[in-house]
């Protein structure tokens, strides 16, 4: 690859890198090199949602970062898992899907970030998502990222009992905390499709790996980028 040139080089095939690789190669006009320090995510312990603690504890898939000593907790170092491999941290995380509160987005715009209010972001949330219940005012039905409510709490009475207990304690019930109302007790949403972890590698990268204008290099650690002017040359 010494003499190969690309229009774009993406360092890191993590949650953002996989999406960029998909989008930048979609028109077919641009050549893209995607570099990833880790390896493949094709491991049953990565793909199986209930096995999430294994890749998170593995040096193969987790960089194993710790924070600096934290004064507020007796100078303890706090573990900060970060994914290594195709999909990045979406390959080792807890798969919980929470968009954030609408009022937070609106506040961003109030503080000087135009275009970031919830109403402006919602179409992009919907565009990215394939919600198990199909499209509605708040949810997307045909996006690349599969999102489910697990098994809809079927088969285990403790699921519903937990939600009922919250309501009995005076908290509201919400059927969709990524929809009309976030506050309340309800089923948890997960980036899982067909019982398999829906990392960005699976959702965005795997479907386009055969594009001729996309080159993916794994086990490629980047130490620095060398520039000639504004052009990266090595």
Describe this structure in words.
The protein has helices at residues 15-24, 44-47, 53-56, 102-110, 118-128, 157-168, 200-205, and strands at 8-11, 32-35, 65-66, 79-80, 129-131, 145-147, 192-193, 196-197, 214-217, 227-228, 231-232. The protein is globular, with a radius of gyration of 20 Å. A hairpin with a 2-residue loop joins strand 7 (192-193) and strand 8 (196-197). It contains seven helices and eleven strands. It is α/β, with parallel strands linked by helices and 234 residues long. Strands 1-2-9 form a three-stranded parallel β-sheet, covered by helices on one side. Strands 3-4 form a two-stranded antiparallel sheet.
Offer a few descriptive terms:
globular; two-stranded antiparallel sheet; 7 helices; 234 residues
Give me the secondary-structure topology.
Elements (H helix, E strand, L loop, with lengths): L7 E4 L3 H10 L7 E4 L8 H4 L5 H4 L8 E2 L12 E2 L21 H9 L7 H11 E3 L13 E3 L9 H12 L23 E2 L2 E2 L2 H6 L8 E4 L9 E2 L2 E2 L2
Parallel strand pairs: 1-2, 2-9, 5-6
Antiparallel strand pairs: 3-4, 7-8, 10-11
Number of helices, counting only DSSP H or I runs of 4 residues or more: 7
Tell me what portion of residues adopts beta-strand conformation.
5-15%
Main sheet: which strands, in order across?
1-2-9
Can you summarize the main beta sheet? 3 strands, parallel
The tally of beta strands, per DSSP, is 11
Radius of gyration: 20 Å
Straight-line N-to-C gap: 11 Å
* Structural class computed from helices and strand pairing: alpha/beta
């Amino acid at each position: 690859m010494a003499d190969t040139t690309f229009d774009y080089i993406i360092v890191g095939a993590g949650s953002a890198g996989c999406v960029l690789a998909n989008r930048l190669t979609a028109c077919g006009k641009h050549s893209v090199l995607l570099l990833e320090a880790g390896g493949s995510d094709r491991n049953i312990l990565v793909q199986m949602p209930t096995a999430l603690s294994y890749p998170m504890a593995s040096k193969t898939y987790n960089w194993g970062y710790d924070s600096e000593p934290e004064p507020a907790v007796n100078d303890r170092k706090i573990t900060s898992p970060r994914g290594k491999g195709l999909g990045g941290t979406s390959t080792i995380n807890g798969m919980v899907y929470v968009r954030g509160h609408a009022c937070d987005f609106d506040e961003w715009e109030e503080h000087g970030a135009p275009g970031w209010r919830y109403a402006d972001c919602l179409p992009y949330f919907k565009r990215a998502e394939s919600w198990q219940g199909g499209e509605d005012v708040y949810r997307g039905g045909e996006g690349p990222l599969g999102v489910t409510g697990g098994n809809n709490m079927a088969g285990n009475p403790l699921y519903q009992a937990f939600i009922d207990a919250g309501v009995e304690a005076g908290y509201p019930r919400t059927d969709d905390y990524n929809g009309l109302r976030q506050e309340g007790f309800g089923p948890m949403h997960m980036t899982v499709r067909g019982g398999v972890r829906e990392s960005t590698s699976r959702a965005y990268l795997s479907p386009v790996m055969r594009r001729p204008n996309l080159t993916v290099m794994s086990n490629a650690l980047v130490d620095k980028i060398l520039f000639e002017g504004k052009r990266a040359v090595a």
